[in-house]
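Title: Prediction job returns without error message
Component: structure pipeline
Severity: low
Priority: P3
Assignee: unassigned

Description:
Job completed but the reporter wants confirmation the result is attached to the right record. Sequence as submitted:
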Amino acid sequence: MSWLALLLVGFGLTDLIFSVRPQKTVPEGVAAIVVILLGLSVGLIDVADVVALVAIAVAVMAWGWAVTRGFGAGPAWWPLAVFAAAVIAAVAAGGLASPASGWLEPWLADSPIPVLSGLTPDRALLLLGLVLLQLSTGNVLVRLVLAATHTVNPRKGGTAHDLPPSQLKGGRLLGPLERVFILGLGLAGQVTAAGIVVAAKGLIRFPELQAARDRERESDRPVSQGIHEVTEYFLVGSFVSWTIALASLVLLSA
């Protein structure tokens, strides 16, 4: 579990740093160094652990490089394959990992926050990695899936010229907030409340789609194809985003 946690920390830091300072190589390089130092500081110093830390650093570098290509001239499925292969390998080899300890164990024991004081170091690292995953990396994964499935945004692709401009400009912020909120509610045992959040997102988007349909009725030029594209774009993006949050919840609950 500690190897998977550090891998997710590396991915999450890479995308978070890139979102603040979009430079080539720097985000993944910094994240790879942080992952190695963090792993060593929590007691992962056996031979197998050190080899795993080097492999995780390489995977983090590969993720940063692949995402840059995926959003550029390269195929969007390539970074998705890198992400899936790295996560599967970390899960499969997780039984060989040493349990984390180091400074993290006494820090958690002395934490005034009840949730943290009840966590083992391994689970605390996993929680950190999964929370980071909900942030910029979640947005990256959603965008990559949309690109790999050719589910383009009609407003940017030019096929829905009759649709009114979207009033929702904070998608890159709302997505992470939504995923973190769902994850937090799930960990608190409020699964029903998490379902309400999912339903609320659909209600927020409904007026936008309804406005497009009303515009179609008033216009001589039909835009029903554009409406369908907006709906598909919304559904695919939303389900991928929700899957990230729910899969994270499953990992933490295991």
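Comment from assignee: result matches the submitted record. DSSP finds eleven helices and no strands in the chain.
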